Amino acid sequence: MYNAAWYAWQRGDIHEAESLAIASMKARGKLLGAENHPDTLTSMNNLAFTWKGQNRDVEAIGLMQQCVQLRLRKLGAAHPYTISSLATLAD
């Protein structure tokens, strides 16, 4: 589902991209666990990037902060996904 969101973004359909990114995060959360599965956290990260691309910085930062905290707890500070999210948040 996230691939469809990415393609929508590439086409310039930012609203469709956002809808698909939200649907992806919700579906993964329901199937895999809302806060415990790395794929769910990847969807959360991707939605934060989508919001950032829409200049919705406050929402994007809030979601990325949540993603960082969950990745720290689930994956640890040395995991590449955690490091990536921390770097994104620092930017």
Automatic annotation (TrEMBL):
This is Kinesin light chain. It holds the Pfam family TPR_10. It comes from the Eukaryota. It comes from Polyplosphaeria fusca.
